[in-house]
Amino acid sequence: MSRTHRGWQGAAAFGATLALVLTACGSNGGDSSGNGEPSGDPVTGGTLVYLEHQPHDTLYPPAAGFYPNGGLVNNITDRLVYQNPETLEFEPWIATDWEVNEDATQYTFDLRSDVTFSDGSALDAEVVAANFDLYGLGDPDRALTVSEAVNNYASSEVVDADTVVFNFSAPAPGFLQATSTINSGLVSASTLEGAFEDFGPGNGQNVIGSGPFVITAEEIGTSVTLGAREDYAWAPASRENQGRAYVDEVQVTVTPEDSVRVGALTSGQADVIRYVEAQDEAQVAGAGLEIYAPQTRGVNNSLSLRFTNPILSDIRVRQALIAGIDRQEVVDTIYTENYPLATSSLSSTALGYENLEDYYAFDPERAADLLDEAGWTLGADGIREKDGQSLTLVVNEAAPQPRSFEALTLISQQLAEIGVDLQILRADAGTYTEAIQDAGQVQIYHSMVGRADLDVIKSQYYSTNRNTLLNRDPATDTIADPELEALLEAVASEADGDTRIANSQAVQTYLAENAYVIPLFEEPQVFGSQTDVAGFSFESVGRPSFYEVWLDR
Amino acid sequence: MTAEAPTDVRVPDGAPTPGAPRTRGSGAVGRSTPPTGGGRVVALLTGYVPRRLGQALIVLWIAFTAAFVLLQALPGDAIMIRFENPELGLSPEQIADIRASYGVDDPVLIQYLHTFAGFVRGDFGYSVQSGTPVQQLIAEAFPQTLVLAAAGFVLAVLLAFAIAFLSASASFAWIRTALRSVPSLFVSVPVFWLGIVLIQSFSFRLGWVAVINPGPVEGLILPVLTLAVPIAAPIAQILTRSIDEVYTQPFVRVVQAKGASPSWVLWRNVLKNATLPTLTMAGILFGELIGGAVVTETVFGRSGIGRITEQAVAHQDTPVLQAVVLLAATAFVLINLAVDLIYPKLDPRLARQVGASR
Amino acid sequence: MTESRLLEATPMLPQVAEPVPGTPALPGSATPHAQPRRRRGGRIRVTEVIPWLVIAIVVAWAALPGLFTSYGPTAGDAAAALQGPSGEHLFGTDATGRDMFTRVVYGSVHSLSGALVAVSVGLVLGTGIGVIAGSVGGFVDDVLMRVVDVLLAVPTLLLSLSVIILLGFGTVQAAVAVGIASVAAFARLSRSEVVRVRRSDYVEAAFASGGTFFNVVRRHVLPNSLTAVIALAALQFGTAILAISTLGFLGYGAPPPTPEWGLMIAEGRNYVATAWWLTTLPGLVVVAVVLSANRISADIARRGRA
């Protein structure tokens, strides 16, 4: 650890949030080990049966945000830098050391020289440079996309076999964290030559990483087998295990039916299952099994109010929606204690979080007053009207989010009380993709994004990223609220850590003051596990790591 | 329709209609007048097969084209669904580049010719959603579905025979009545619900069979049962009805009077009568099964053509869907052709009666 | 979807092909055991009444849901979520505290009209194609029946899902999708019936005595081919409810919170182990209705024969 490492905006800058992170983890039994967990020395060997909710659709790291993809990529690849999931600090992994210039436009990494990919080729500066050239620039001809986490990437330079330099066209303060995410999983030179097709299901065995596991078998759409790599010896120093993974094999089996997944766990046919729905938690806990609920530490599960829509352009209407939704009831009814009520647009476990719960108080009378004030009067059918137009809004069902439909159903019942008609859009993928990009069709957008970096808020709201507020109208390409744009840019382009945190908090405050967002809850990833599965852990946003798992049986 | 069997070459057209042979009454088989008379018998041997093959190819081509048109008409396209997903966080420029590289905005006719030429060459392209070659997807899924469908069908036939036999021979009237309503009950149960209940009871509660990473045979037990129940129903109905009809025939009483064992007479005739409709239906059912075990496959987490189809529809994965359509249409055409050709061989009466006046 | 489609193409059909009443050419066709029952006539058999009773109740639910329940179909009481069946909530409550019995009652209008639309689509389109093909014959027949072949050749699931994607999500759309998938069955059945009737002596005679084509088809062919088609329609009614529920299972059914039966069963399946009433009770209602429809179909066919 050189001066540069320490000098970088590491621990000190995050001190404020750190305490919050730790308390939050403790409070929900999150990623720390559960109660009945086995103790003693890890046992090597055995097969872990892991049930996935959906089949993976690609192993191309920048497109691996989809949890089934990420769960595999996290275990078959290593990253330059390790973000400790408990402290969120950065620790050496493949890079032993790094240096960032003053304005965060140049990063230099020193690499370990003993790391090999599972095909035997060396993990050297050359291949690292090639990885980030692809992830930072993409290749449309091969349908390989740019990584969402890598901004302003310009070029790489290979200094020598174990030193690589990355240059950026503008400050890229989030890059160090970006190198620690699964979206920057390092793959071999042969893998990098492939097109999007070569990363697809059925080709898993050809996606070569340097991680503790290797894909040894695959049945498209149903199962993937991960085999432990015998010669793995380059785990981050803070991990207990420094050698090969304890289990010999992880059998990842796709089981789309929730009831079947949970039943398989409680009947002992599976060791670990992902995506335990809130209503099934009691069943898992009741069977004496473990529940893990690591937080996703990013933008909360929330409703983006698209203020470019004529109805929602009135801040009073947006405020009325916020005041008219009893979020506590939603959390209590639809979810469990693993889904804490949101108190800002960012999760309390996210970097840069600021508590803004006062803005999001439930007050139906105030909601009604605000709507009256805005000229929306109650019609005969209980729905408010103005100039012959009824107060009808459409929200999308967010299929990837837990119980989106149930939550929205309850919210629409609550809003009906104040005379707002909330329709839920459930549609085929084509119609859906078109509709969510049109504020005329979907006025309220339900989504979340998890990433343990300050950039995450920009990912969610910035015009050329997810653009969930439709601040940039896709049809006309115009920006409705330039101030929001500027605030978001400031988060992602400021090199100084403290200033970045302040900038992120400024965005959160701006979103709250303008009533642009209704945060619902802090979204976890919920897993269920047998009690004799030890060492099950997660990366910083809840993707499973099988590296230290061992079976006490 | 079955009545036309001997004469009208388009027998399978009648398949979904009642297949029951008209054994009841006199001159049961073929009350209808053959369109052209006995000449067709010769045609069967000479012009018939080539003509059917030609028609089959035309059906395949129309199915392919219809599917292409249908898929083009759907809102959005696979590229949009895959890459404009906000979760990827791509900028409009990046999306435009990818669209151009896939050629999705080329004129429709060019895309059609391109796809068609590919299929003729046997190149089905790549899945847009996952990038996996379509051939590989199908090659991995097809055997799974085939095994499931075949086993499901065999079990269904066995079940149907059991139901029919018991409902004809059970000693108490109320048992017979109850058994007769079993087929109706079988078709009234939603398949996905049946699957889930079977898993919950036999795997999770009783622990008799594993559903997670089971052995090859073990893994088939519950899905096959789930699939067989609704298929068994119509077959059982045909058999039961056949039994009824045979019982009412005078010749059965004659044979019985002559001292033949009643059950021997019964079953010989029932089988003779029920084989054709069952076979016809097998053609239809089997073709459907190939493309259609989606519910069973989803519930049991099996890979198969049904799952692929459902996922491909969800993502409008055109290359995959085109291949599935072609596969299903081929299966349909082949099975029907086979059924057509087997028909006269199975029941020589059909051939003999051709041209007989009614 | 497809599993149910299997059935739609087939069951019960033998009777359907039986001679139709008033077919003078086929005097010997009356079923021996059907005759005596008919003569027993006046007495109404319980087993024939129950199905009608079931349908009547369900139709009453659809027409006047407010008479049967005091709760609202979409308004939930979050505090009373996931309660088992009781005097207060006959069928229990769901995850958002809505009364399941109320939802079943209010859902009947969606499910029944859905099934009705599905059957009508299949009946009108299918019978249209079948009657034209069967009446005109020749080249038209060939072409139409190849079209039907294509309909059968494309996997039903794909066909239904594509139709839904084209039309959008909704009860009616799902119903139309199911209906279109059954066009082929109706077309083949009606064609074979028409062909059969057309060839009967009395129709030949009608033509011979100078009846115009349309008149003969309308006066003689259609009415005599109808019984079988109606029996299939009654059968389809039950099948359509199942098919729509299967679409709901795959996520293509009516959009919630429509209290549609199939959707309720599909939504409740995740609770099979913890809240059995969510799928079981609406499931039993569906089974009862489908069984009744099948029964009625069989009775229609039998009466037709007798």
From TrEMBL, chain A:
CDD domains attached to this UniProt entry: PBP2_NikA_DppA_OppA_like_15
Entry superkingdom: Bacteria
Keyword Nuclease: no
Keywords on record: Signal, Transport
Keyword Cytoplasm: no
SUPFAM superfamilies listed in its UniProt record: Periplasmic binding protein-like II (SSF53850)
One matching Pfam family: SBP_bac_5
Domain annotation Solute-binding protein family: ranges: 89-452
Similarity comment: family membership: Belongs to the bacterial solute-binding protein 5 family.
The protein's name in its UniProt record: TIGR04028 family ABC transporter substrate-binding protein
Organism, scientific name: Occultella gossypii
Lineage: Bacteria, Bacillati, Actinomycetota, Actinomycetes, Micrococcales
